[in-house]
């Protein structure tokens, strides 16, 4: 299969999606973008898997309206972040360094889809006051995933080389097709928001998918494997308040997963969203940002 031709960034990236980078203590480069109110309450946004910082642009307008500074890093191997064998247990250290770099001493975390476990992992950081989950994956023992996600998880465990070829093929088609093609992986139809028309949402979703594989599929494959393994922390040990939002028509993460997470977490609320996977982010993102602004720590 021929490699994908170079694609000018302006053809598929939102105009304001350029990232900044910082050097972590081990010398790795971590890329991140910020959206919303630069002087607002900091919220760490953990993108999905596959995914990147770009998807956080869907929440830029509500973040601005709510006075939220949405901080969206690309995890290792994603976008312009250098790859490394980072686990769910390691990720909070990268997140803590980013928050320190930005002079943040109090923040919350929001996780979408496969980013939910990474947001929850940050509960141990003293800076994190609350967490919100939007269509979040759960541990293997909690809830269920769709057939496609089960297939991808199995490949990540037993045939990562095949999963790499699958992701490269997916990128090859995404480059050559209309943005709505990318939306088909996460939604039944392209949603609209108060600030964005459906075609712009589709362009952002396409950009998100392409950015997630900008450095190749290794980062995504590692994360898919991590998400199919037992988590290194127990849900019962998460002491910060967690707001769970779960789409009732989600084909990627079963509605039962959101309910199960809320029941297992010590301090959690649950809200059912009448939407699919991507629609949970666009429809309930504003509510999630509002929820995590309610500070509870002194």
Automatic annotation (TrEMBL):
Q: Which UniProt keywords apply?
A: Hydrolase
- For the keyword Hydrolase, the answer is yes
Q: Which InterPro entries match?
A: AB_hydrolase, AB_hydrolase_1, AB_hydrolase_fold
Which superkingdom heads the taxonomic lineage of this protein's source? Archaea
Hydrolase listed as a keyword: yes
- Gene Ontology MF: a single term: hydrolase activity
Q: Where are its TM segments located? A: none
Question: Which residue stretches belong to region Disordered?
Answer: 1-20
Q: Provide the protein name.
A: Alpha/beta fold hydrolase
Q: Source species, please?
A: Haloarcula argentinensis
